[in-house]
Write a structure and sequence with these properties.
- Helix content is about 20%, strand content about 50%.
- With about 350 residues, it is of the alpha+beta class.
- Strands 3-11-10-6-8 form a five-stranded mixed beta sheet, covered by helices on one side. Strands 14, 16, 18, 19 and 20 form a five-stranded antiparallel beta sheet that branches.
- Strand 10 and strand 11 form a beta hairpin.
- The protein is rod-shaped.
Length: about 350
């Protein structure tokens, strides 16, 4: 009996290190003062973490990841510690026995989702799952996540850190006949990490690698764009289209690109009308690509912004629009012709 008391005392010293603020509401602090401990029950909560719904996400997607926490705690052993003497101890032992079964209950469960090395931003703070008895599943815990727009396709590990407490041991004392009973409850604080997985889906992705334009105020010109499929999936029957605003317009705002495999580059040409009063400068033009994915579903890419340069009329004239440059050019040409004729005359006289 003395050895048992010493062991219980040592365990209580170790477990009491969990700070008082970590003890859930309505749970008394760890106090171990009674001499009688009629039963020892072995076991603990056993937490399982899973997600609800599809684990697949698109790049640049923002969504709620629903996390479930289930307690599968089991009692693994049970033994009597003392010989019972008298009806009071028998009654107290029965009360303690019932209380000991709460060893599998997880109290004050809190879940925290972290991304680790995954290309994901977690936007939701830790969520409370409350108290879970054995066999109970928490309500869905929503965590808002944002997949990076640069995330490569693949499977990624996310971590769910759980904190909770459970009743490690119980003592009872007092007079059971008049229901004057005192309780000692020893709680253990638990930190544990679980893993869940999400999948960033393979998909086509696009960027504009080369843009040229021949646009003048009051004229029609060509805007040429090279589109590059930088994703992992073939874009079938792809078409590029423009979203134009003043001073640019077009009746030819779509271009068929065909099937674009990963790495393919296709050049599209658009006929653009420019208002006469357009200010010469670079205008931002929105483009997007509509295509069919591997499942035959129609998808539309993110907006791709490209510059459409409207130049001044004088820039296009170049040497012919500048009198000084034109005069200098004519003088140079005349000199070259004169020298050429002079050389020919010299050759003829020597013969």
């Amino acid at each position: 009996m003395s050895k048992l008391i010493v062991m219980v005392f040592l365990i209580s010293i170790l477990l009491v290190q969990s700070s008082a603020e970590n003890i859930p509401p309505n749970i008394p602090p760890n106090i171990w003062t009674f001499t009688n401990d009629y039963f020892t029950v072995y076991g603990s909560p056993d937490m399982v973490v899973s997600i609800t719904g599809s684990p697949e996400y698109d790049r640049d997607e923002t969504s709620n990841l629903l996390v479930h926490v289930m307690n599968q705690g089991k009692i693994t052993g049970f033994e009597s510690e003392d010989k019972l003497v008298g009806s009071n101890e028998i009654a107290l032992s029965k009360i303690e026995q019932q209380l000991e079964y709460d060893i599998t209950t997880a109290v004050g469960v809190v879940a925290c989702l972290s991304a680790g090395d995954a290309p994901v931003d977690i936007k939701t703070p830790p969520q409370s799952a409350g108290t879970l008895v054995s066999g109970q599943v928490s309500h869905p815990l929503p965590f808002e996540i944002k997949i990076w727009d640069s995330a490569p396709a693949g499977k990624y590990l996310l971590k769910v850190d759980l904190t909770y407490q459970f009743q490690k041991d119980v003592q009872v004392d007092g007079n059971a006949s008049n229901n004057q009973i005192d309780y000692n409850m020893l709680y253990q604080h638990v930190n544990e990490t679980h893993e869940i997985f999400i999948i960033v889906k393979e998909q086509a992705d696009f960027e504009a690698t080369e843009v040229t334009s021949d646009l003048l105020p009051g004229k029609s010109g060509i805007l040429s764009i090279t589109f590059h499929n930088t994703g992992e999936e073939t874009a079938s029957r792809a078409s590029a289209r423009l979203r134009l605003s003043d001073p640019l317009s077009s009746t030819d705002y779509t271009a068929f690109l065909g099937d674009m495999e990963p790495g393919d580059q296709v050049r599209a040409r658009f006929n653009i009308d420019v208002d006469p009063d357009a200010i010469p400068k670079a205008y931002s033009v929105k483009t997007e690509i509509e295509y069919e994915d591997a499942k035959g579903q129609t998808r539309i890419s993110d907006i791709i912004y490209v510059p459409a340069e409207v130049r001044d009329q004088e820039e296009r004239k170049g040497i012919f629009g500048n009198p000084l440059l034109l005069s200098a050019g004519l003088v140079i040409i005349a000199v070259l012709i004169f020298l050429y004729l002079k050389r020919r005359e010299g050759g003829s006289s020597s013969e």
